[in-house]
Structure of Iron-sulfur cluster regulator SufR:
Amino acid sequence: MKYVGGAAQGAAEEQTTGERRTRNRVARSILDHGPSTAADLAERLGLTQAAVRRHLDALAADNVVEARDQRVYGHRGRGRPAKVFALTDCGRDAFDQAYDVLAADALRWIAESAGGGQDGQAAVSAFARARVAAQAERYRAIVDAAAPEDRTRALARALSADGYAATTRSAPGPAGEQLCQHHCPVAHTAEQFPELCEAEAEVFSRLLGTHVQRLATIAHGDGVCTTFVPQAPQPAEPDGDDRPAAHPAQTQTTDQASASTSGRNPA
């Protein structure tokens, strides 16, 4: 009987270990791909939706994931939007964020040592730019080696190698794509010091050779850091010899219109 009891206990422990591994796979999939529905997770992990929901319930009870309404871009169909599951701050803490307190304390010390106020903010910004500059140098060769239409994907691969779990996808609306970072090792620190996010966006702009726009950040409570990268402009066609020359008065009017709208976004 002792042997049977020991075997049963071993089987129970093995089952518990297997359950824990599967839950870790579910959480890791959400980290790598961003907020996901149960159907998405079931397809990626080769599990049934019922099994995924059971693991999600356990993860939610442990405050690792939370349910949210799915964001819908463009036309919204009938019915309620599907629920997606995103990592909580507690869930992200399990993925290599143990040094956030130390980093925040160090940045706070930098700001105070510079005198606080605008001087302190400038010191933190200088640190943030220096930090990502070294990172950018490693990425530059990878991005420059890619074709213009593949540079955002090349940057995503480089970011993923550094633990940012980055992907790209087509952007709704204006022509371009979105660079998505599903993990941020310094999310909690960036919540207190947004200069880190701003410096990173500046580096993305320089590497890709175009102005980029931050749409969402994990530091501000979004599920994914999302950056819009506009499509690279096509080279202009050479002027034809048979094109009529602009009338001097027309040229003057155009120049005045350009000057009057410089520095403003088009309506």
About this structure: The first strand starts at residue 65 and ends at 69. The longest helix spans residues 2-33. Residues 241-267 have pLDDT under 50 and may be disordered.
